[in-house]
Design goal:
This protein is of the alpha+beta class. 48% of the residues lie in helices and 14% in strands.
Length: 823
């Protein structure tokens, strides 16, 4: 006779407790049977009924406690009665039946080999939440302590597993994988510093220090508002290091000297100058004092908001720099905004000349620009004799602000700086640069365009919301794709656009505030008119709560006093109000809601989106978010979402893109050079092609490309001497050769540095050697080396080649010639 096989009882205690018997989920036991079952399964051996009564009911009489325990045991014994009870009981003792197969996720979780990636990955999949996650609140005494001890064991092991997976991913140079595991850790243990530290280190290692600092702010706010706690000293120290040196490597704290002294280099800088509006011979000390007294505080406030830095010259000129302390790719945009903010904030009766100029200049060890940059911008500011608007140099206008309509500019008399004529233009009103209809052909993005249009049609037909993430590096064509999508939307589908800007990362919901200001019609009003219009709007849409009114007034910066704000304490109420108006009163009917450059979003915007995205399914909205990278803390929040990863052009697509450009001649040599140098990045191809069409050389890098390349290079200023040497070598270089040139590093150090540069998009592996990802990067680094230092480095490389195992007479002669050492 065949013996009946005993089914297994599966007990899940990692998260809310569940029991599965013979493959079927059992009804959730009541509280005491649930606790008792977990305790008996995990605490091996016999347990007296009296001890169990004291454990679960320490404040009751023993007789009452034993009665309740007996009732709980009876309920447990009914599990799988056809196969016998899972427990053995006597009058005084209780234990789990040894003949009854009981499997717990607790034991399976702890049994994984931490060196085995497959095992610990499976173990993490078992973790649905903290040990007995719902067993809290009314629990106390010895039982409470038992739960906390077990919970800590699981939490510690989970942290060890995830830390191991992060290490494995980093060792394989899979930094995206490491970031995913670190984010999983942060999701599972949101109140702990360690996972946030892990994410911050990975982001900083990837050159995304601003995201790391933003994550710290979220963590700090979460601890403060939800738990009344603050981050620990270690993670605050990481934040301070990132603020002090955002491109630094968090894995090393020892400063290492640079090769041949502190390197000087060139980088792209934009300057806004604010000068006294008077003839030079009329400027007196009291006038300088009055000028500084009025404008300096304003300039410092605006610079802080826009990510600039301020200096004051001896003649009273106030200079606001963008890209001096750290490269930025939108310095001209920041300077334009800063100029018009200063005009808006300034009291009537105080006049000043303002001018903006940009250039790639040499920076000395004191972080001060060398060359005619300051002389040019001061001359531009002095040409602003009207004391309104701002004067722009031709270089800034042609290369960095092409979207400003020519009709809004007044051409001024050219100035001559060191023999060079520079044309100036007066801009009287702040330009509105937004997504416009595109007249250029779209190349290489047919599949992505079709997907956006298909999703828009689904929103219209199904009346259900969707989210599309358009992800790709700077210049890959995200905005160009959306412009074409805008021209092909289903009939009657509205298009709403807001853009995140890096200068507003410290603001509160800036993109939505800007959008609301425009939709309500407040953008052309003064503060009092705006306040009254906003209050009337809120009343018209049914918002009668005075607290909500105060929150909106504070958010849109139209309060009539400087009293303490409410947003920090009642931001959730504001979120609910904004969400209600967006979904029910303002955005009515099918629409596309574009949030551009969401990687620059402020913490308030990100927090609102975590609240908004889960609700988007109920509205006919296609939300499109463009970003340079996936934001793990937002991805997955919506019910229906997809990601379009825009890749670089291949050779055929790059060639087709060139052929669509007006005025491009199919010169094979120029065409092949452009394609080779630009590494398939559309914006580089376009700018370099325009330079050639206008008569320039394929070997000349336009200034608007320099400003973007310098942002990439600035991620690695800690290793600028290594980049400079590699640029001078002009060919792939092995780590062993770099070790000869940089004896202060070990091979492991150099391997780590090379992997970091690869992950930051600067280096690429070429067999057993390393090289720049594309020629433009190498040329940008090389052209950024001042002539004297360039000669020093050529001479140093020649000496190392002459005395080492990489001896090469022709290479030595070349470097000596470039160093000027051959007669």
């Amino acid at each position: 006779m065949t013996k009946r096989q005993q089914p297994e009882l599966h007990l899940s205690v990692l998260g809310d407790m569940e029991c599965t018997f013979s493959g079927e989920l059992l009804p959730r036991p009541q509280r005491l049977p649930r606790r008792l079952m977990a305790y008996l399964c995990l605490e091996a051996g016999r347990h007296s009924r009296a001890a169990l009564a004291r454990l679960f009911y320490p404040n009751r009489r023993e007789e009452d406690g034993r009665t309740l325990v007996r009732q709980a045991l009876f309920q447990i014994s009914k599990i799988g009665t056809r196969y016998g009870s899972p427990i053995k009981t006597t009058r005084d003792f209780v234990e789990i039946s040894h003949n009854y197969p009981i499997i717990t996720d607790y034991e399976k979780f702890l049994s994984a080999d931490i060196q085995n990636v497959t095992e610990i990955t499976r173990a993490i999949a078992l973790h649905r939440g903290p040990f007995l996650s719902t067993d809290e609140g009314d629990s106390h005494g010895e039982w409470r302590q038992w739960v906390l001890r077990r919970r800590k064991i699981i939490d510690d092991r989970l942290a060890a597993y995830l830390e191991r997976l992060i290490q494995v991913a980093e060792g394989a140079r899979d930094f995206e994988g490491a970031l995913r595991w670190a984010e999983e850790w942060r999701r599972k243990q949101p109140t702990v510093d360690e996972p946030v530290k892990a994410v911050m280190k990975i982001l900083a290692h990837d050159g995304r220090s601003s995201e790391a600092l933003h994550l710290f702010a979220i963590h700090q706010e979460t601890l403060a508002t939800r738990y009344g706690a603050k981050p620990g000293a270690d993670i605050r120290h990481i934040r301070e290091r990132l603020q002090g040196a955002p491109t630094g490597d968090l894995l090393s704290s020892k400063p290492i000297p640079f090769l041949l002294g502190i390197p000087t280099y060139r980088t792209f800088v934009t300057v806004l100058a604010i000068v006294i509006n008077a003839d030079t011979n009329q400027i007196t000390d009291p006038l300088i004092e009055s000028h500084i007294h009025h404008w300096l505080d304003l300039a410092q406030q605006v610079a802080m908001a826009c990510g600039g830095s301020v200096q004051v010259a001896s003649d009273g000129t106030i200079e606001m720099f963008f890209g001096l302390d750290g490269a930025v790719d939108d310095g001209p945009r920041r300077a334009l905004h800063a100029a018009f903010e200063l005009r808006r904030l300034s009291l009537s009766g105080f006049s000043a000349g303002m001018g903006i100029h940009c250039s790639r200049v040499m920076i000395n060890s004191e972080k001060h620009p060398i060359g005619p940059l300051l002389q040019t911008v001061r001359a531009a500011a002095r040409a602003n004799s009207q004391g309104t608007g701002v004067v722009l140099s031709a270089m800034l206008l042609s290369n960095h602000a092409p979207a400003i309509p020519i009709s809004s500019l007044l051409t001024l008399t050219a100035i001559n700086i060191h023999g060079t004529n520079i044309i100036l233009y007066l801009l009287m009103e702040k330009p509105n640069i937004s997504v416009s209809d595109s007249k250029n052909n779209l190349v290489g993005r047919d599949r992505e365009l079709a997907q956006v249009i298909f999703s828009a049609e689904q929103v219209v037909s199904e009346r259900k919301g969707r989210v599309i993430w358009v992800v790709g590096q700077a210049g890959i064509g995200k905005t160009h794709l959306i412009r074409h999508a805008k021209n092909n939307l289903p009939h009657g589908m509205a298009f709403i656009h807001c853009r995140c800007l890096s200068i507003y990362q410290q603001s509160f919901m800036f993109p939505l505030a800007s959008l609301m200001t425009e939709l309500i019609g407040m953008d052309e009003m003064n503060k009092e008119q705006s306040r009254m219009t906003l209050l009337q709007f809120l009343r018209d849409v049914g918002e009668a709560d005075q607290l909500v009114h105060s929150l909106w007034l504070e958010w849109l910066n139209v309060r009539d006093d400087d009293s303490h704000g409410y947003i920090e304490d009642y931001r959730q109420i504001l979120f609910e109000s904004v969400l209600h108006l967006i979904t029910n009163r303002i955005f009515v009917g099918p629409r596309v809601f574009l949030i551009e450059d969401i990687h620059w979003a402020d913490s308030g915007t990100l927090e609102f989106l975590t609240y908004y995205l889960p609700n988007i399914n109920n509205q006919p909205i296609l939300m499109i978010c463009t970003s340079r990278n996936i934001l793990p803390y937002l991805y997955g929040a919506a019910t229906h979402e997809e990601t379009l990863n825009l890749e670089k052009f291949d050779t055929d697509a790059a060639r087709l893109f060139l052929h669509t450009m007006p005025g491009w001649t199919t010169d094979p040599d120029n065409e092949n050079s452009v394609i080779r140098r630009c590494d398939g990045i559309p914006i580089y191809i376009e700018y370099l092609a325009r330079e050639i069409i206008s008569g320039g050389s394929v070997h000349t890098i336009p200034d608007n490309i320099y400003s973007m390349l310098d942002v990439t290079i600035s991620k690695a200023t800690d290793f600028i001497d290594i980049l400079q040497v590699c640029a001078i070598l002009g060919e792939p270089v092995s780590l062993s050769f770099l070790k000869d040139l940089f004896p202060r590093y070990t091979l492991d150090d150099l391997s780590h540095i090379a992997c970091r540069l690869e992950n930051q998009g600067i280096f690429i592996r070429a067999g057993n050697s390393w090289d720049f990802r594309h020629e433009l990067l190498r040329d940008a680094v090389y052209s950024g080396i001042p002539q004297q230092r360039r000669q020093m480095l050529h001479s140093y490389i020649a000496q190392e080649l002459a005395g080492g195992e990489h001896y090469d007479p022709s290479a030595i002669a070349k470097h000596l010639g470039m160093a000027g050492d051959i007669t």
